[in-house]
Every structure is written in C-alpha cells, then in structure tokens.
Amino acid sequence: MSSTTVSVVKDGMTSWRLFVPRSAGQVERFAADELIHYVNMISGATLQRSDRRRNTKLIIVGVRSDLDQKSLPKPKLGFDGYTISVSPETIVIAGDNPRGVLYGVYDLLERLGCRWYHPQLDPKDPEVVPKSASLALSMGEWSESARIEDRYYWMSSLAFTIVPERVVAQLDWAAKNRYNGVSWQCVWEKIDEHLNLMHFSGIFVQMQKRGLQLDGPGHSMPYFLKTQDYFDEHPDWFGLKNAQRQPHGGPWPATNYCTSNKEANETFMANVVDFVRKNPEIRQLDLIPADGGRPCECLLCQQRHATDQTVELFNELSERLEKVNPDVILTTVPGYCPIELPPERSVPNGKWQGIYAHWGRNHKCSYSDADYPRRQNLLVWASYFKRFQVCSYYAANSHQPFFGPPFLHALKADTEFYIEQGITGAFVLEYPFGFWWNNSFNVRMGGLYPYYCPDRDPVSEIRDYAIHYYGAEAGRVLAQYFLMLGDNRNLERSYRASRGEADAGDMDFFREMRTMIKRAEQLAEPNPIHSYRVSKLAMGMDFLLQLAPTRSRITAIQKVAEECIAGRSDVVELRTMIADARAMIALLEAEVERLAAAENGVISEEWLKGWILKRTYSDPLLLVEKKLDGLQENTPEKPNHIVDTNL
What we know:
This protein is of the alpha/beta class. It has 19 helices and 19 strands. An eight-stranded parallel β-barrel has the order 9-11-12-15-16-17-18-19, surrounded by four helices.
C-alpha cells in the first residue's frame, strides 16, 4: 500500500464507518445507500453506519452546509457541485446541494472503477463494476461542478408510451451520468393517464430520491384547449385551414388554435394555470404547439407573425404562473415549426424559457462552427432569453447514422459554445426506443461532458469507454475504431451510408472497419460479457453494410421509374429490379429479427421494421408499383414501355 493511498477495504473486510447527518434529505440518504451498495458489489465488504462523527475511519456524506466546512476546500464555481477529501482517517463527500452529494458518490465510485454506460435494460449486459477484495483511494481533495445549470435528458421510456419497468433504469442511468432533469414527452390525449401512471407506479418517487427535475409534457398545447370541450360552442377559437375551422391538433399535418382570439387565449391560459396548481412535480412546464402544426390562417393571424403571437401569449401566461408557482419554468421550443423564425415585433419578458431545437442536424457541424447553417438563427433566439436551453438530437436514430458513430467534434464544440454564449441548459434527446447499444456514448457524454468540461473530453472518454466496456485487449482495438469512425473527416461517410448514398470508397471504408471489429471479437472471446458486447457492435455494422446497398437499389429504382414514365426505359427491367430489392429487404427483415432476438428488450424490432424498413424501403417500392399498376402498356410501336398519365 502506497503512502499516498488510503485503504478502504482489505481482503473483503473494512473498519470504515459511514456517517450521514440527521438533517440529511432523501437524496443524500440515497447517495449513502448507493455507496454502500457498490462498495459491497466490488469487494464484498459492508460499510456499517455510524451516528457519531467522533469515529475514526469515517466516511462522511452530506450537504456542505450540514458539515464542518473549515477543513474543506472552497467549492468550485458552477452548479450541482461537490467536494471530496480523502485522508487517512476521514473521507468526506460534501455536496453543494443534495444532487451534488449524489454526484460526489458516483465520482468516488468511478475512481474505484465503476462505469455506467447503459441503463440496465439488458440482463446480459451488466454495469461495469470491477471485482476486487481490496479497495484504496488516492489521498487528496478536489472540488467539481457543472458548467451548465440544466442538463436534461429526453428519455425514451417517458415518451409517448410510459414503460414503468424501464423508466427506473433510465432514471438511474441519467443521475449517474450527471443529468439533473428528465423530459416527459406525451401525446396530448394521454396526459392525465401518464400523470396517474407516474404517481401510482412510483416514478415520481424514483425521480425525487435522485434529485431529478421533470420537464414536460411537450407537444401538448391541444390538451389545454381541447376540441371536444370547446369546438361546438366556439368554432372561431380553432385554427382556420382551407377556409374551415379545424380540430386543435387533429390529423397530420396538425393545425394549432387561433392565437389571435382573445377568448381562446384566456381559456387556454386558465387551463394551464389550473394544471400547474394540480401538478407541482413539473419544474419545466414544456408547452409546445402540435408537432409540425400549422398556424391559423384567419385574417387576424395572418396579419401578425406566428412567432409574435406565441411570444405575447407566453409573456402573459408566465406572468400568471409566477403568481401560482414561481418555481415552475414555462418553456417552449423556438427554432422549430411553427415558431422557427425570431419575432418581428415582440420580445420575451424574461420570465419564460426557450429550448432551441434543430431537428436533423448533421453532427459534422457543431453549433459554434462558422458553416453551421442555423448559427445566426440560434444566436438571435438565444439573445432574447435569460434562460435558454439547446436541444441536441444526439440519438435521434430517425435522422442520424444508424449504427451511432461518436460525434466527437460536435460533443466537444457544442458544450464550449454553450459556455461561451451563456446558454443555461443542455437538452439531449434519445429517440426512438431500444437502441442503447447504438447511441449510448453520445447520450452519456451529453450529460457527463458539460459537467466536467474542460477537464474531460470526448476523445479521452472514448478510450476510457472502449477499455472499460469491451475489456483491455479488445478495447485497445475498438478505441481506434471509434476514433476513426467519429473523426469529422469520416463522419459524413456514416450519414451517406445510412441514407443509401455511399459510394464504393465509403463501403470499402466500412468493410475495413468491420475487420477491426472482427479482431476485437477474437480478443474478447475469452470473456463472455465482453464478447457479447463486441457482438452487438458487429451486428450493428453488419446491418449497416446491408442497409447501404439496399437503399441505393431503392434510389436507383425510383430513377428508373421516372424514366419509364417518360417512355425512356424498360418496364420489365424495372420489375426485375423491384423483385431483387424485395429480396434484399427480406434479408434486412430477417437481420432485424436476429438483432431483436439477440438483444431482447434493447433493440426495437417494431421500430426498425416500421420506421427504417417500411418508411424508407418498402413504402417507396409500393409507390413505384402503384404507378406501374395504374398505367397502361404502350402501343405495339413502343413495347414494354409505360404511358405517362401524369400520376
């Protein structure tokens, strides 16, 4: 044992005791429980509790204000901070607030080798918890804090459909990775059902004991002015489209209500105020118009910009909410339809918050890059708010590369941009469901890096991830694999391959990358858990290698179909291409089933077949076939061609 280290456990035994002040709340007590739990998992030793500070060999866990601060270093400027002091007789974990206590415990456990890369949804893929009968910590003291006040995680198990048995695993993962809030996204028709479920299943209790704040319910404005409650008596309150008043929300593309109607606004705001009174658990009341919804087309609404009307509505609503619950933060999403453009006449009053959302960003660009296409729009919107978050779709598999390369440049430069521009919150979206093997690094760093920036960075973290998650031998190979894959010089290849636009050079690159995974498979083979983890990586790359040429075939078919309609190509040849493409899709469907079976509960077969294969592959083929079936064969002078009937 070095003179610069402190022995906490030796040969599975410990003489150390754990002290928590009597004034401690549920977050601090949960933090102490976590320390006991993981020390036992690692070493087999059990930390006994003490009710006295006079004990030697004492681990003290609590909020700084409840402890003797004279012996502690000053706190670090920032948010949710903590201080850790390790000396031969005393170890102190002092949080600046209750969440800081919990983060301090996780910091200490990470120094003992624990890592939390994935929520515990896959029983074959456990947390990274080392096994050692003896534990020691380096002597010293340090303070840490977050550079960004709010770090919210839009979690899939609280989105659209609540899955209680998965929620706790994701909440647990979020807290361990330094998020301090989670987002609940609900289809407006199910808001009451979701709230009841969160209460009765204990979800709110699980949030509270980790100090996690709740954002929600998202695209929910139709809930506060329901068509079934008001349309018959007040049709003029609802959005006008094609000269007719429309249901609020309604079928896609939805129509938002008439925000130029004062009575409609009064009723909307009264319903929101009543909702806030009944639901104090929500810290960020996230009210967003119907997703993709259009503004009302009545004359009054057309006379004023949709953004101006929204700003004026939220200014007044925030004044009312301040009197009801000053702790709730009213929020909506600028930069996103229908309030993508900044206001022309109105200015936010500083009592509500914007969450900027750019759906479909290519992560080769960070927000700070000069060539980021919406940089000016983002900066203008940020200038209007005291509190301003930025939503990053680091794991929106509907628009990002399928197999999840690490966004090394974007993760680092985005966080630096937040700090330089005074952005108060990072909001990380994980959509859709069941793809943790695919996107966890990006989502994890979305919470972790803003906390430690600039002391830790995505490049060093990817090496740490590879070694700890895949094992030392395979990890050395896979660290290089991830660094190459996430290099901005290569990132565009991943986008092209996922879109079916990869050229021969791109495909050669991915085949070479696959050989690195094969080498890692060989090195991981002696360890069943490491081997399983590498196999998930291999399956993802194999699926991409099939996705790319199949999508390229669909694109080629669409081009040939247009030539057939113009009478310049052979219908028989086109139908042969379609048959070949269907065979390729069948192989992809079989691969999806294999992936889902291998990782039950982690990979969503339904979503892969629905969003990826049906939307992007099968449906375009069906559209081409409908055009062919609806057209007549050409005259004998032009055999095997189809007539253009302007379909």
